[in-house]
Design a protein that fits this description.
By secondary structure, the chain is α+β, with helices and mostly antiparallel strands. It has eight helices and 30 strands. It has helices at residues 7-17, 20-23, 121-127, 191-204, 209-225, 230-239, 421-441, 449-462; strands at residues 30-32, 40-41, 54-56, 78-82, 90-91, 104-107, 117-118, 130-133, 135-138, 142-151, 156-160, 165-170, 178-179, 184-189, 246-249, 254-259, 266-267, 272-277, 281-289, 301-306, 313-325, 331-339, 350-356, 362-367, 372-373, 378-385, 388-393, 395-400, 403-408, 415-419. The strands form eight sheets. It has a six-stranded antiparallel barrel. A four-stranded antiparallel beta sheet has the order 7-27-26-25, with helices on one face. Strands 9-24-29-28 form a four-stranded antiparallel beta sheet, with no helix packed on it. Helix 4 packs antiparallel against helix 5 and helix 7 runs antiparallel to helix 8 (449-462). Residues 443-453 have a biased composition (Polar residues).
Amino acid sequence: MTKLRSPSLLFLIGLCLASPAAADERSPLYYRDPSGAPRWSAVPKADAQGRAYLPVYEADEPSAQPAPKPAADPTRKILYYRNPMGLPDISKVPKKDSMGMDYVPVYEGEDSADGTVKLSPGKIQRSGVKSESAERRALHVMVKAPGVIQLDERRVSVIAMRSESFVEKIADVTTGSVVKAGQPLMQIYSSAIASAAAEYLSTITSKNSSTIEAFGRGSRQRLVNLDVPDETIAELERTRTAPVTVQWRAPRDGIVLERNAIDGMRANVGDVLFRIADISTVWALVDVAERDLGTLSVGQKVTIRARAFPDRALSGTIAVIYPQVNRDTRTTRLRVELANPDLKLLPDMYVDAEIDIAGNAPALTIPTSAVLDNGSRRIVLVDKGDGRFEPRTVTLGRRGDGVVEVKHGIDEGEAVVTSANFLIDAESNLKAALKGFADGANAPTNEPQTSSHNHAHDHAGAQP
């Protein structure tokens, strides 16, 4: 049995069955997801919840309006049209790419034959292009190398016995003690010294002047050969008494580096009992790389900083360049003499050396950031003004303080690009490629098709 439906329900059913043109005579461009998710459809459809996609009309989508095409300048000659996306593709006539974008005209004068690149003021501003003039300045180039403090070999003394001896008494001196020249170190008994002293005493006390003349000089020399201190010999001559023991004193100011003497010990001939070094002047032995050896010479100033005192700079000069290269480290050793009045520099202390190899002669320099280095060539972009930039090969020299010396390629006062230069270099390569394609398009038609492409690639490769 059929039930009667209400008039309002019948009206809604009829509205749904009506044609879409009755609801809206406009044609939708597409249909979008009703939830706002980034999903679209070219035909009516529903989402997973059964909701219908919403139609989008031309009036609702401003982006669908095509951008106005820039009018060509009738006063300038168009050389060719290039791809709007920057691809190496050109056309002799106006055309569109696969996305419907118009090719961009390239006018005469924009494609310079001298290799320069011309950018619009807007592109220069957006890219952040900055330029700086080449100028002459004192270039400070530092060679940095590690080193170590060592004793001055000429300021080291040892106390060794020249005859068999016995240590009677040691003074209050230990390893590390600071001693002064003439300070007592120990008392020594030696039978050989006692015998020589008695012989010399008998000679100088003899009443026979001929005996003194004949034997006195030889007896005294024997004491000297046994390394008896001059003070002891002078005391013997004054008192006319042969000493039982001999007081041994420090031969120089310095630090006791080694003490081998012990009370009562027997010392054989040649045994080193004390080793004393004067460290008021020390050596810094610095190992520099082999590649820097050609820039160094004796007499150059060196700044030394001990790692224990990094805030203290010591000044010295290169005294010796050792005539050998370490085959393992490929370094050469330098000797720098340093004054050490406060005795802060100690043997085997690590130091860092800085050697200024540039001098004060001014050199033509540019910022290091201006150089484009592809491994085989160094190129800079010279700012010619009015948005024109010229790639130029340069020969470089020393580097330091954020600048680099230019030996050939640019003149003093010429401006070079220091920021965003890689973007201009990319633009230069693009234009070189486009010019190669243009030259290939103008070639005779009887040439093989591949020749124009090869020419384009060769031309592009020749550009910086």
